[in-house]
UniProtKB/TrEMBL annotation:
Family annotation (Pfam families): GMC_oxred_C, GMC_oxred_N
Domain of life: Eukaryota
UniProt-listed SUPFAM superfamilies: FAD-linked reductases, C-terminal domain, FAD/NAD(P)-binding domain
Keyword Transferase in record: no
Domain Glucose-methanol-choline oxidoreductase N-terminal: 316-330
GO BP terms in the entry: secondary metabolite biosynthetic process
Name of the protein in question: GMC oxidoreductase
Cofactor: FAD
Keyword Flavoprotein annotated: yes
Signal peptide extent: 1-20
Family to which this protein belongs: Belongs to the GMC oxidoreductase family.
Residues bound to FAD: T48, S49, V120, V276
């Protein structure tokens, strides 16, 4: 069961985003002397999922106290494309964020992955690209499948039917005005939505003038349009809403919708500028809830918070496993090397790291290309930029600055991408069924763990079955404009390689060490070769040929040779599209799981995890909508 027995909906009214970020609330605490002697619930991390849980708990149980502990602080969170920036420039006033560089990836030309995460109240929902899609129904059905018979028999289900109501509940979707819908040919289905939560999404009141060029070319490649891609069926061309306020056009995020818009509540406290070091079980993990050990970032003072009910760790894919590891919960061999006394041997803690990544196909145009407006007009036309800023400040907001990173993408399955799909799928199954093969692709420190090997084999078999489904997308390519030099990026939606997140052995409270191990399972390269070859077909369409599309990279000679194209993929891929997950996976303990379907940590009384680290498999979408849904589902 979740925390709540009935749905509790916030009735908070829409507030100005800029104003809400600056209003001081009595529930914001900055030092231990301001805290209560004990709390019913303590939530570690004021991010996308954590604030969702805090909002729902504090509303449902007004007589129970809730404390959220956050490393960062309250900040105004600008959109990814707000005035006065030009298209996709760095914004001048970003929120504080963590910046991570992984260890070198030897299977990807020794490249490092660069990853950012919001270090702010609101977490990464306050700093992401605002692209607010969901996975397909088959992504979440795979979550149930990979849990095997043990999870199939549970009353709590994390398949599509089990999570879809919480997707609907988690966001308030506003239909675009009829004139805007007609102008851009937007399509949607209101039955995919239905929430009244002050987390907002809508379609931009603008598209760049050349946005239809690629859409026409995708159709010429045989890709069909989906009328609505948030209702479970996603393979094809999709319109994707943005996480933005429909009136102001500004970013909508958890720091507003689940904090500023719902406080003050007398039972809801937020402690900022503090780091949770660990949870402690003085009498052992069977006797909970644990104490929460906290460190002040101002004076380094350590203190404990006493909890009466439960602790929910919601610190994200990188920090949730490190809190657990500092608590003595994790792989026994690693904890011994770190000098941390073992509390629970759960080798899945900090393992199973997955993220989206991939290379691009790039091109130029040789024919005249006359559209207005295009992104360059913001930089070159002062009148247009002035009008764009005025439009953004209008009510309702409209114009270029409402587009965030864009609203359109294609999602393509492996069978629709390549005639070699069955050979790729067979290779995955061969790895899963050949003794010792699957283990050889795991990180060295867990290759000898029977439960981690069993879990990885289950994942490979689940993904092999999913890849066979022509309605299961394995490629994403988002776009908003095709102005030259242009590119079509290849998202590897379901990587087979697995990485790790581990404590820094020289400083346990410093940032963790990330080992992405991208490309360590060679089938990832096979899939990326198919994706690049598929995207190259775009340039041969009548529409693109009409504009004289001329390929820059990888080029025909490289694409014709498997070895050369594989080298291109290894050296030209972006290794993180900022969607890390799965490092405290919801799987049976016998498959390397960290939490069960109730998101309780295996063997740890009074302790749950609620964030993207619980995903057993990476979903085929940007991840913020799933983070909100996790917070909603665990709360009920």
């Amino acid at each position: 069961m979740g925390f709540l027995s009935a749905a509790i909906l916030s009735a908070a009214a829409l507030a100005s985003l800029a104003a809400a970020a600056s209003i001081p609330h009595s529930n914001v605490k900055r030092q231990v002397s301001q805290l209560r002697s004990k709390y019913d619930f303590v939530i570690v991390g004021a991010g996308t999922s954590g604030l969702t849980v805090a909002d729902r708990l504090s509303a449902a149980f007004p007589n129970k106290t809730v404390l959220v502990i956050e490393y960062g602080d309250i900040h105004f969170a600008p959109g990814v494309f707000d005035p006065p920036t030009n298209w996709m420039e760095a914004i001048p006033n970003p929120v504080p964020s963590w910046s991570f560089f992984s260890l070198p990836n030897p299977d990807m030309g020794n490249q490092t992955a660069f990853v950012m995460a919001g270090q702010v109240v609101g977490g990464s929902s306050a700093s992401n690209g605002q692209f607010f899609d969901r996975g397909s129904r088959f992504d979440y059905d795979a979550w149930l499948d990979v849990g095997g018979l043990e999870f199939a028999g549970k009353s709590i289900k994390w398949n599509w039917n089990g999570i879809f109501p919480y997707f609907k509940k988690s966001v308030t979707f506003t239909e675009p005005p009829p004139a805007v819908a007609q102008q851009y040919n937007y399509t949607w289905d209101v039955s995919a939505y239905g929430g009244t939560t002050p987390i907002y999404s809508t379609f931009a009141a603008f598209q760049w003038a050349d946005q239809p060029v690629l859409k026409k070319a995708w159709k010429e490649m045989g890709i069909n349009s989906q009328g609505e891609c948030a209702g479970g069926d996603k393979e094809g061309i999709c319109w994707v809403p943005a996480s933005q306020d429909p009136l102001t056009g500004r970013r909508s995020h958890a720091g507003l919708g689940h904090h500023a818009d719902v406080v003050p509540r007398s039972n809801y406290d937020l402690l900022v500028k503090h780091q949770v070091v660990r949870v402690a079980y003085p009498k052992g993990p069977k006797y909970g809830p644990p104490l929460v050990e906290v460190r002040s970032l101002v004076d380094n003072h350590l203190f404990n918070v006493t909890v009466k009910g439960e602790v929910v760790i919601s610190a994200g894919a990188f920090h949730t496993p490190t809190v657990l590891q500092r608590s003595g919960i994790g792989p026994a061999s690693f904890l011994a090397s770190a000098g941390i006394p073992l509390v629970l041997d759960l080798p899945g803690v900090g393992s199973n790291l997955q993220d989206h990544g991939g290379p691009s196909v790039t091109w130029n145009y040789s024919q005249p290309y006359s559209f207005y407006p295009l992104p360059a007009d913001l930089a070159n036309n002062a009148t247009f930029k002035s009008e764009a800023i005025a439009a953004f400040d209008d009510t309702p907001s409209h114009g270029p600055y409402t587009i965030a990173m864009g609203n359109s993408a294609i999602y393509v399955s492996l069978p629709h991408m390549t005639p070699n799909s069955q050979a790729i799928i067979n290779r995955i199954r061969q790895i899963a069924t050949t003794p010792g093969a699957a283990a050889s692709y795991l990180p060295p420190d867990i290759r000898s763990s029977p439960v981690m090997v069993a879990g990885y084999i289950a994942q490979l078999l689940t993904l092999a079955n999913a890849f066979s489904n022509p309605a299961f997308p394995s490629l994403e390519t988002p776009w908003a404009t095709s102005v030259a030099p242009a590119s079509a990026v290849s998202f590897l939606l379901h990587p087979l390689s697995r990485g790790t997140v581990r404590l820094n052995l020289t400083d346990h409270v410093a940032q963790p060490v990330l080992d992405y191990r991208a490309g360590s399972n060679p089938v990832d390269i096979d899939i990326q070769l198919a994706q690049v070859r598929f995207l190259r077909r775009l340039l041969a369409t009548p529409t693109m040929q009409g504009y004289g599309a001329s390929e820059i990279a990888p080029g025909a000679d490289v694409a014709a040779d498997d070895a050369l194209l594989a080298e291109y993929v290894r050296r030209q891929s972006i290794l993180s599209f900022q969607h890390p997950c799965c490092t405290a996976a919801m799987l049976p303990k016998g498959r390397g799981g960290v939490v069960g379907v109730d998101l309780k940590v295996h063997g740890a009384a009074g302790l749950r995890v609620a964030d993207l680290s619980i995903a057993p498999l990476l979903v085929g979408s940007h991840t913020s909508s799933t983070a909100y849904a996790i917070g909603e589902k665990v709360s009920f």
